[in-house]
Specification:
- This protein is α+β, with helices and mostly antiparallel strands.
- α2 crosses α4 (144-200).
- The chain has four helices and ten strands, in the order ββαβββββββααβα.
- The longest helix is centred in the C-terminal third of the chain and has 57 residues, at 144-200.
- Strands 3-9-6-7 form a four-stranded antiparallel beta sheet. It has a three-stranded antiparallel beta sheet with strand order 1-2-10. A three-stranded mixed beta sheet has the order 5-4-8, with no helix packed on it.
Length: 203
Amino acid sequence: MSEEKLVPKLRFSGFDGKWNTYKLKDLLKNKSSSISINQLEDNNGNYPLYGASGFLKSIDFYEMDHDYISIVKDGSGVGNISFHEKNTSVVNTSQYILPKDNLDINFIFYLLQTINLEKYKTGSTIPHIYFKDYSIEKVNIPSFKEQERIGLLLKNLDSKINLLNQKREEYQDFKKYLMQQIFAQKLRKRCVKIQTFVGANSF
């Protein structure tokens, strides 16, 4: 049974219903990856494979045929959350997180980012995080239509942020190029003057 809880004041117009409170285990399914990167040195293809730090390589098969969320469960980057499109996979240090019916995956992706997973980490040498532990977290869920609106808004904001970051990197590269050209030109002129001076004062 779900509980009902009032939501924050900031909402889209047209939505005024209460949000229900659930545990994550009532909303999500988890699935383990069977892919070890060590076994794929000679495997190449068209399907992206991801690890804790992002894209690793393209291989000739995939494990997920629909969009999904992944959480790093072992080692470096444990607890990191990422969203991936269908026909891709993650290595076995991560796990697949799949929303159940009547849940918007974009909404769930951003909702998970509001949860402090740090407190569920175990292990000192190699840290781990287990679904059975953090799945007891309680979260508030609106209607499916409101989930869609919220998920789309946040996804669009992420797209704009990524575009701005890309532009920023392009401007930084252009700045470096200009600096190299400007100061290299000055250096060349100085070298000519030094060579002239040395030649004029040679014995």
